[in-house]
Design goal:
17 strands, 24% helix, alpha/beta, Elongation Factor Tu (Ef-tu), domain 3, Rossmann fold, 3 domains, 353 residues
């Protein structure tokens, strides 16, 4: 049974959040669902009218209250504008993490309390575990669906008030529950793209964003080798990502990859030049402080799909985390997040510099 105070459930209109609502309701207490209106998505895409309708219908079937919270202005400034500015700086940001930071586990907590709820729940595949009076963020038991990487930014003192009902389930089990309960979202397809860039054309999106704000973006720059020698012309740094090999149009004795970007210059290097053993991270959120010493063995991911790698970590100065890997890692990318684990437990995470 969940503690008194009630739970507000974030509902995207998909099967995961629908089943999360069903499971939270089964736990008892005051329960309501809410859809965060973030932007005007097309039908069939995230944040569409279809999603709102599906979430509302699920709540009606469950007999729980339903709210739509309009966060469009905050989503524009905290997520979309931040994403675009980061990309223009030569970084590769993860907007889903920023959405979780500012809205799903930021503004939504405030809205929940304004509505009289103590807790929030979502359909993420992760777990909150209480051990010895402390609350920990842990991986979901389904390793293929674990989403703890994108949740590291939840404030430590809020963990007690977060519910992840799907943390102990597999995706197939979630769909089985939805079918058993007769939820209309049981067979709904999962969204795969960044919601506000559904076609995956990040460069095109940034160009449109800049044009609407009368921001002039450079359209050409130089390709440089690791020694700083110009070896070609590029189409603008926005068109390239760290680790990219195809579409460079530069001849060399061995394959070249994008190794870094500075302004509109794009640096190219060989495969071995993509590897590094140390990274620095900012905007660090620490969930388990006593694990951050240089002698404590941890494991880290520098992107969502990566297998965790052995490392040690320590703070070198205020809000700057130094992570040293046991073995060099390929294509560590500024703007992405590094998340550190002690077994199944998230220790901390931050944005790679």
């Amino acid at each position: 049974m969940y503690p008194d105070g009630g739970t507000l459930i974030g509902m995207s209109g998909g099967v995961d959040s629908s089943v999360a609502a069903c499971l939270v309701q089964a736990g008892g207490g005051d329960v309501a669902g809410t859809t965060l209106k973030l932007f005007d998505g097309e039908d069939g895409k995230c944040c569409s009218i279809d999603d709102v309708t599906d979430a509302r219908n699920v709540c009606a079937r469950l007999g729980i209250r339903y709210f739509v919270l309009n966060y469009k202005r905050r989503f524009q400034t905290d997520v979309i504008d931040s994403f675009a500015a980061s990309y223009i700086r030569g970084e590769t940001p993860n907007p889903c993490i920023e959405c979780n930071r500012h809205l799903k586990f930021g503004r939504m907590f405030l809205s929940a309390r304004e509505l009289g709820f103590s807790n929030v729940a979502t359909g993420h595949y992760a777990r909150i575990t209480k051990i010895g009076g402390r609350y920990y963020l842990q991986k979901g038991l389904d390793t293929k669906k674990d989403q703890s990487y994108v949740l590291y930014m939840i404030a430590r003192d809020e963990l007690e008030h977060v519910r992840f009902p799907l943390g102990g389930l597999t995706k197939s089990e979630v769909r089985d529950i939805a079918r058993d309960k007769g939820l209309l979202t049981a067979n709904k397809r999962d969204s795969q793209d960044i919601c506000f860039v559904p076609d995956g054309d990040y460069a095109g999106f940034i160009e449109t964003w800049a044009r609407e704000r009368d921001i002039t973006l450079p359209t050409h720059g130089n390709f440089l080798d690791s020694s700083g020698n110009t070896i070609g012309k590029n189409k603008g740094a926005l068109s390239y990502t760290i680790g990219q090999r195809r579409g460079l149009g530069v001849s060399h004795s061995e394959p070249l990859y994008v190794s870094s970007k500075r302004g509109n210059d794009v640096y190219l290097g060989t495969e071995r030049e993509l590897y590094s053993s140390v990274l620095y991270a900012k905007d660090v959120n620490v969930l388990v402080p006593d694990r951050l010493t240089a002698c404590y063995s941890l494991r880290a991911k520098t992107r969502y799909s990566q297998t965790e790698q052995p490392c040690t970590a320590e703070f070198t100065e205020r809000d700057t985390l130094r992570v040293a890997f046991d073995k060099p890692q390929r294509a560590i990318t500024p703007g992405q997040s590094v998340v550190l684990y002690d077994g199944d437990t998230v220790v901390c995470g931050g944005v790679i510099q």
